[in-house]
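Friendly challenge for the regulars: who can give me the structure tokens for this chain first? No prize, just bragging rights.
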Amino acid sequence: MNSLSRTSKAVFTFGGGTALLLFLIFLHLLQSSQEMPLSTVWEAIWNKGDSLQHHIVRSIYLPRIVIGLLAGAALAVSGVVFQTLTRNPLASPSTLGVHAGAYFFVVAGTVLGPAWLTDNGFLLAFAGGCIAAVLVFSLAGGHTATPVRMALAGMVLSLMFTSFTSVLQIFFEYETAGLFLWGNGTLVQQDWNGVTFSLPWVALITVIVIWLGRKMDLLLLGEDQAKTLGENIRLAQVLMFFSAVGLTALVVSVVGPIAFVGLITPHLVRLMGYQLHRMLIPASMLWGANLLIGADVLGRYLDPSLSELPVGSVTALIGAPWLIWLILRYRNSFFGAGAKESVSPGSLSFSLPYSVVVAGSLLLLFVSFFAGLAGGGDGFEFRATWSALFSDEASGQRFIIFDLRLGRLLVAMFAGVLLALSGLLFQGVLRNPLADPSIIGVTSGAGVGALSIMFIFSGLSATWLPLGAIAGSFLTVAMVLFFTWKTQFHPAVLALIGIAVSAAGGAITQILITRSNLNAASALTWLSGSTYASGFSELQQFLVWPLLLLLPVTAMLVTKLNILALGDQTAIGLGVRTANTRWLAILLATFSASMAVAAVGTIGFIGLVAPHLARLLAGTDHRKMMPVALLLGASLLMIADTAGRMLLAPKEIPSGLVAAIIGAPFFLWLMSKTPKK
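First reply, four minutes later:
Bragging rights claimed.
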């Protein structure tokens, strides 16, 4: 019976997988050759013709399929190795930041490196992937790291590397022309060079991984058990690490970063009943190829014009629900019974009088505002700015201040207040130090909603833009809360579900941009969050009236947030309607973030950093935290706006990228202040 069961399992896994792969390849060829007789495709495959159509099939269609097979197999094996190496079911090249690091180094080498580096994309990707993976492992706690910490460290480092990459793509638009599609993963090939380069490397590294299979089986028993059996654990782990990073770097250098294949495939094969690596590795290779070719077929089906949806966006759409399922399935093993793992620094605080904290926050706001007015391409002009502000005489500086900088700076100030308010409410009502509009997916959803109004419902006027942002953000919050309410909004579950939903939102955003043929630099600028060209109209439309509405309501709510922090049972005993309070706070926080996105795009980390700084400076009383957090949020975004205008003048860095570059190290610092276990 067991023998029959094993045979049936093998027939389904390998026989069924091969049959499905052949069917997907056939569909792929049909999609590519819609205006070509099938007989011509068949002749081209068997090299029986020499017409232009035959050459197109052999030099464009077939290399695309073969590179898809190689990339899918390589990413699947990389995922298997990373999951075994870290004993983390959430591990994959994308969740550990390897993709983002490899991609950044390729772009940086293309733009900034010497000429010989341009033709060595694999070496650049390998170096970037290694650096990213080492950073994630060390920040998460090395061998003692939990899956949650590792996933969060990978997320933040990915955001940081992505921000660096976006800066390069915006400022070196000519040098990085064509990298926008490739940067989201594409199997498009113009010849066989990518295949001939990657095939021997993939084959060699795969042989090494298969040879390591028995050692990986022993690692599943634990390091002590493996050492008892005489295995050189450290050597095996080093080989596993470089093999997994090498396979990922190969894929990134040829087809760009393609997410989630390395996460989905190993779990899919394990569900089929394979646990030992002798069968897990080849089965994962087969089904990884199936997944990537299937995603390419699906992308072309969704866009029959063949204007090329990035296959990485399609795999993200497929992978995000899978990641949610994994988080919910393994939540007990991740977090234990009732454990409340977070990255909160706990008792860390600064002993300063509250009056000093408020005065310092106000001073920072004033200095940030005045510096923003005075800062320009030629540096700070404090004296001329002061004279222009308090003089009625017409001057060039007065025109620059009142007509070009003032409205934009006020937009940054008010948007920073709204984002800080949103983060404060989310962190307070969910008792979650990780809650932030960007981390739990609110800004991503708002961005999708706003872009949908711009591109899908392009006939609507700009006044509908905030409604799209609000609808997208509320839909995102509803999804995140739906999947986490059974865990009582566990902080780490909420953050991880937010990562998955944000990934899906990011994929939809990339698809919308690709379909609308939007200029890559313009798209990156908006996606990164920018106050460029904003002014009094955005201030009036999106920011002033929401703030006037939200501030008094939130001020009345903060006392209840203090009570909620004591626990639901205590809060109920003190007469607080916990459900009503929680839902009201979530509605206010979501509305606040969506209006900020409608005004300045998807700016992240302000809602995370400002409340945390306020908590460190003013304590945990929300009545004291609120004014400090709002002042700091306004100051941070104005600082980001000013720095973005001045650092590389006359070009501008989107303020959202500057905020991410500031916020990511702060988040990583928070992680360093918490126990590693």
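The chain is about 75% helix and 0% strand. The chain has two domains: 59-333, 371-672. Your move, everyone else.
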